[in-house]
Amino acid sequence: MSLTGTTGKYQNNIEALQKLPLSRYERIFRIFTQGKNGKQFYFYNILNKIEFPDNIDPDLLDTHIVTAREPLTTTSHTLYGDIDSWWMIYLLNKPLLKNKFYAEGGMQLQFIRKNQRGLIYQQITDTTVFSNKHF
Q1: What is the total count of domains within the chain?
Q2: 120 burial level (CB within 10 Å; 0-12, 13-18, 19+)
Q3: What is the pLDDT along the chain (135 residues), one digit of tens a residue?
Q4: What is the edge-to-edge ordering of all strands in the sheet holding 39-44?
Q5: Quick one: 64 and 98 in the same domain?
Q6: Structural domain of residue 104, as residue ranges?
Q7: Could you say which of 11, 34, 70, 111 has the lowest number of CB atoms within 10 Å?
Q8: Both 95 and 129 in a single domain?
């Protein structure tokens, strides 16, 4: 067992586990295993995290004005058609949202354009792996 990322596979590469859609935050991180009493247990290193740089290409971004208080899962559904991408909205707007996972009416939230999410997901995956470790 290792918490450093030197072992483990991505969930979508483990046949015993359900495949995750591209938009799921958990998909970015490797899963580790530990056996106990003849059973295999899977877990994530919860200390891993993702942060967006301050200098994201503005052509990848758009602005959404929130009309009434709503959870970020609702905002994600409005913008992307799924509730799984709430984490991208949160991370892009963390200074504005602080530690809240909802937006108030009138807030102007930045978001990754829907047709650019695949590129961003791939870049996140590529840049979070360094010498087989996640940061």
Answers
A1: 2
A2: middle
A3: 444 434 577 788 888 888 888 778 777 777 887 778 888 778 777 666 778 878 888 999 999 999 999 999 999 999 999 999 999 999 999 999 999 999 999 999 999 999 998 888 777 766 655 444 443
A4: 9-10, 30-36, 39-44
A5: yes
A6: 58-115
A7: 34
A8: no
